[in-house]
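Reading group handout, session on sequence-to-structure problems. Before we discuss, look at one worked example. The prompt was deliberately terse, the way you'd type it at a terminal:

> structure Glycine zipper family protein

The input record follows.
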Amino acid sequence: MKSIIKMMTVVIMLTTAITEVSAQGFLKKMTKAITDTTPKTETLTPENSEENAKRDSILKTPLKFEVKKVIEFNAEGDTIKNEDGTVKVSYRVVDENDKIYDPAVVQQMVNVRLKAYGKILAKVGGGAALGAVKGLLSKNKKEALTGAAVGAAAGLAFSAKDIKEIRGINKDLKQLKTVLEAYQTTFTEEGLPKMADADLSNVNGIDFTQCTETTKLMAEVQSDLEESKNMDIPSLDDLSL
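And the output record:
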């Protein structure tokens, strides 16, 4: 009887040991599988950090331009007038600081940015990423994938919040592009109507008569224009999207 009990004890001990070994092996395999399939977070080197900061500063910064009525004055402070004695008013493309830009330059800036946005938004045009963004925009937390998961789903270096910002800016830029196109067909390089009888209250649905008015030193107007024409507008094709 004692020998039977000893034999059963040995069998139980061996079975337990084998089970533990198998379990450990299984756990190791599972751990390896999870490690292999989990997206690896790239270590941000100083170069990568700089590149990411550059990308974000460009793509997540709105282009704030509008058309304003500009009344110019000379160094003596006298308002510039037309030959008939009326105050000369020109329509200019300005930024948020009333700095005047050549409209063709602003158009190029807008086109470059829209091209980059197009690449980003095209990647979230379907599948999990699109559903995540729609959920985020509709504030439906159950449908929204948040954080970097959205970007990862589309193979992008952007989070759901980033993509939401980009969608908003992209919409604003398309509206700005429409205004610029109407402006360029209506006004000369000097910001004057190409047609004396042009109806500025309705140029493809845009009412230029409602533009805000500002004053500017005549020399400064020319200086701003020349500076904008000499701007370096880099291509965004090399940015990590």
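Points for discussion. First: The CA atoms of residues 22 and 28 lie 10 Å apart. Second: Residues 1-46, 143-148 have pLDDT under 50 and may be disordered.
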